[in-house]
Structure formats: structure tokens, C-alpha cells
Design a protein that fits this description.
This protein is α/β, with parallel strands linked by helices. The protein has 15 helices and 12 strands. It has a 7-stranded mixed β-sheet with strand order 9-8-7-6-10-11-12. It has a 5-stranded mixed β-sheet with strand order 1-2-4-3-5. Bound molecules: nicotinamide-adenine-dinucleotide.
């Protein structure tokens, strides 16, 4: 099986060396600082106890406390968590947040748990990690199949253990438990904004842009909704069970209404799929990825596009909402074909940016309005997008990903060198 962490590390090393980053700094960023592994005992509703493998990786704290989501999914592994934590390190540096990178997860199919079992699992995770995480050490957030309710349980468990209020220990909480307005929509909204920046650079009208979206969860739905409201033509949407297609355009509000109408109240997950509605034609997951569209938005899991299907991809632009949806090899092929890719480290950074805003509000004890959150998100993303765009345009034949990594690695290099590298101490001018 291919290692997603090896792939992520290989990309870091390639981009680091070719953008002139010192070997010692690349080496330092090639190794996670610490990963805690645990087996979580969870009391099931039938009285039995099951054990679930759990992880938390603190990849780098060079720029600040570690930051990154917690995933509940059957495929979670130490390898995957470390890759995701490495990408968080780059992402926080790309958008100038005072954070390092982290990530966590539990290997579980949460759709098979009752709500009470899910609550016990979430609390067990925080109990196992309570001495590892903290508001100034490592701040988790939601990711695939975790949500605001789960973040609220985890905050509560942490505070029970520590015996004091610590709202800034976790972000993406329910608003009435110290969450930020606009956090739930932030990842999708941010991906929409960067797509808009690209569209205005390329001078195209939204109506002339056909879009296929893989994944219809928090990130996928919110990017679909924003693009749809702005007039883009959404022709295909998928979730884990299948995909729907309409060349004339899907109505995102109707697709969402159908999906939530089948929401299971026993657990926190939708019981049905977009592809079970009678309104639209169904297609396969592979068909969705290979549609002849202007914009493809992978918003599910990593490695959606690899060497095995890259030659079927026809989209002109790709906004990477998922983390690591394109393998390093496939990325090179798409670049050589001229596909414009807004890289994950910028495209999905809206989530961590508004998580940062939440953390700031918690620390200050002063909540912001939705308008303030949206305005500041726009401002931060515009600055980071323009920097990446300008770097790419003043260099020869490099991708937007290269430009984003070059900026992030330069920033990390400065702070790593100042703490003491061979080059730093041998250069009399430092
Ligand atoms: P989510 O749990 O809300 O939704 C995941 C969606 O993916 C679901 O609709 C599921 O049905 C679908 N899915 C799973 N496997 C699929 C497949 N093979 N084909 C099509 N759809 C499939 O998760 P999310 O928070 O929306 O996360 C999605 C991606 O965005 C992940 O890569 C995550 O790391 C990334 N991301 C999320 C956030 C955030 O704030 N939630 C922030 C940054 C990045």
C-alpha cells in the first residue's frame, strides 16, 4: 500500500530543494515532532467494551502551538495523520497564522455508533489526549466525520479533567459553547473565495463555468452552495455512496434538502445519499472525476486523483478542498497538461483561519459578528492568494502549489535557522 505520508514528505523535499531551502531545514521538517497513539476503551450500548485506535500528531511547533482537526474514519492510521499534520504545518505558514501543524484521528466507522457511543468515544479521545493538547500547545478542530457537537463534548471533557474553563482548547465548537460565527461555513466559503480570485484573474463569467464536486459534507456542501449562489453551473455532486449529474445544472439547495431530510437522529450522520434522490441521473464516482468540466472540486478524501486515473481528468481548473486529493505523481502530469490547481494548503485554509479567529475570540472573551469574521477571512485569503499568484507569475514555469510551498518554507526556514542551524552559526552576519 502506498504511504500518504511518504508522498507528502517526498513533495515537501522536492519543492524545498528546488526553491532553495537549506537541507538542514528540509530535514527538520521531514520528521514529525511527536505522535501519541492510544487505544480508547468505549462502553457500547450493549454493555460490552470495544477498543478504538486513536492518534494525535504534533508535527511542528516552530510558528506556534500545533493546530489541526480530528478525523473519525475507518481508514485513519498513523501514516495518514502524520501526512495531514505535515500539510497543516505548510497551510498555517501559507496564510500567516501563528500556528504549527497537528492532526488527530480515530480508526472507527462513526456511522455505526449510536449517539451515546459517539459521545463516549469523543470523551475517551480527549481523556487520552488531555495532557498532550492544550490552548497554547495543540488545538484540535473538526475534520471528516467530526462536527461541532463532538468538539463541544471534547471541550467539556477537557475542562472536567483540568477543573477550569479552557474554551480555547478546541475550535469548531457550537456557537453557544464558545464557537465562532461563520466557522461551520468557513472551509467551503474560503474555497469559494479563492476560486473567485482565480476567476477574476482569468476574466470568465460564473455562468460559463461548469463544476463537478466530489464530496458533499461540511466543506463540499458549503463550497457548492457559495458557487451555486454566485451563478456557477454545478453539473455533478457526489458523496460516499455515489454521484448525480445534470448537464443543465443541479439545484444545490434541493440536493441538500433531500440529503438532510434523510438525516438520522440516532447518530449524527445522514443516512441517505445524494444519489438516492429520483430527480437526477446517477453516475459513478469515476465518471464524476472525468467529466469535461471547467472546474473540478475534490472535497472528500486524499488520493482521489492518482497515477491510475490522472489521464482521464479533463477539468481545466481544480480547487483542492480536500487535503491531499492529488498524489505527487499525478500533480506533475496535470501541471504539464496546463491544469490550474489551487492547492489544498490555500484552498481549504478558510477552516483553520476561522478556527484561529475562534481561538482569538476565546482568549479575548470577546465574540465577533458574522460580518467581522467574513470580512477578515476575505482579507486574509486575498493577501495570501495574491502573494502566491505574484510569486508564480514572476517565476518561470512553476505551479501555484510550488509558489505556496516556497512562501511557507521560506517562513519556516527563517524561524528554524534563528533557533540554530549549522549555516546560521557559521554565518558571521547573523
Ligand atoms: P465531512 O465528514 O463533513 O464530509 C465528508 C464527505 O465526503 C461526505 O459527504 C462523504 O459522503 C464524502 N465522501 C467520503 N468518501 C467519498 C468518496 N469516495 N467519494 C465521494 N464522496 C465521499 O468532512 P469535511 O469536513 O467536509 O472534509 C472533507 C475534506 O475537506 C477532507 O479532506 C478534510 O480534511 C478537508 N478539510 C475539512 C475542513 C473542515 O473544516 N471541515 C478544513 C480543511 C480541510
Amino acid at each position: 500500500m502506498t504511504s500518504v505520508f511518504a508522498d507528502a514528505r517526498q513533495r515537501l523535499q522536492y519543492l524545498g530543494h528546488s526553491s532553495g531551502i537549506s537541507a538542514q531545514v528540509i530535514d527538520s521538517l521531514s520528521h514529525p515532532k511527536a505522535t501519541l497513539c492510544s487505544s480508547l476503551p468505549v462502553l457500547m450500548d450493549d454493555g460490552s467494551t470495544r477498543y478504538f485506535k486513536a492518534y494525535r500528531c504534533q508535527y511542528s511547533s516552530h510558528l506556534g502551538p500545533c493546530k489541526g482537526g480530528i478525523r473519525f474514519h475507518p481508514n485513519v492510521s498513523q501514516d495518514e495523520v502524520q501526512a495531514l499534520a505535515l500539510w497543516m504545518t505548510i497551510k498555517c505558514a501559507v496564510v500567516d497564522l501563528p500556528y504549527g501543524g497537528g492532526k488527530g484521528g480515530v480508526s472507527v466507522d462513526p456511522k455505526k455508533l449510536s449517539r451515546l457511543e459517539l459521545e463516549r468515544l469523543s470523551r475517551a479521545y480527549m481523556r487520552a489526549m488531555a495532557d498532550f493538547v492544550g490552548p497554547d500547545k495543540d488545538i484540535p478542530a473538526p475534520d471528516v466525520y467530526t462536527n461541532a457537537r463532538i468538539m463541544g463534548w471534547m471541550r467539556d471533557e477537557f475542562e472536567v479533567i483540568k477543573g477550569q474553563k479552557q474554551p480555547a482548547v478546541i475550535t469548531g465548537k457550537p456557537v453557544n459553547m464558545g464557537g465562532s460565527l461563520g466557522r461551520d461555513e468557513a472551509t467551503g466559503r474560503g474555497a469559494f473565495l479563492v476560486t473567485e480570485f482565480l476567476r477574476s484573474k482569468e476574466g470568465k463569467a460564473p455562468e460559463d463555468i461548469s463544476v463537478a464536486i466530489q464530496g458533499f459534507g461540511n466543506a463540499g456542501y458549503n463550497v457548492a452552495k457559495n458557487l451555486f449562489d454566485a451563478g456557477y453551473k454545478i453539473v455533478a455532486i457526489s458523496d460516499s455512496k455515489g454521484a448525480i449529474y445534470d448537464q443543465a445544472g443541479l439545484n444545490v439547495d434541493e440536493v441538500k434538502a433531500y440529503k438532510v431530510s434523510q438525516h438520522s437522529f440516532d447518530t449524527d450522520y445522514c443516512a441517505s445519499s445524494v444519489c438516492e434522490s429520483d430527480t437526477y441521473k446517477t453516475i459513478s464516482h469515476e465518471d464524476l472525476l472525468s467529466l469535461d468540466v471547467d472546474l473540478l472540486v475534490p472535497a472528500a478524501l486524499e488520493n482521489a486523483i492518482t497515477i491510475s486515473n490522472v489521464n482521464t481528468i479533463k477539468a481545466r481548473w481544480i480547487t483542492e478542498v480536500a487535503n491531499g486529493p492529488i498524489s505527487a505523481e499525478a500533480d506533475e502530469i496535470l501541471f504539464s497538461k496546463g491544469t490550474v490547481i489551487i492547492p489544498d494548503v490555500l484552498a481549504n485554509s478558510g477552516g483553520v483561519i476561522v478556527s484561529y479567529f475562534e481561538w482569538v475570540q476565546n482568549k479575548a472573551g470577546y465574540p465577533w459578528t458574522l460580518e467581522q469574521v467574513r470580512e477578515r477571512l476575505h482579507e486574509k485569503l486575498k493577501l495570501s492568494f495574491d502573494e502566491m499568484w505574484q510569486y508564480q507569475h514572476k517565476s518561470e514555469n512553476i505551479s501555484l502549489r510550488y509558489a505556496a510551498y516556497a512562501k511557507a518554507l521560506k517562513k519556516l526556514e527563517l524561524v528554524i535557522k534563528m533557533r540554530g542551524t549549522k549555516e546560521y552559526f557559521s554565518n558571521a552576519e547573523n
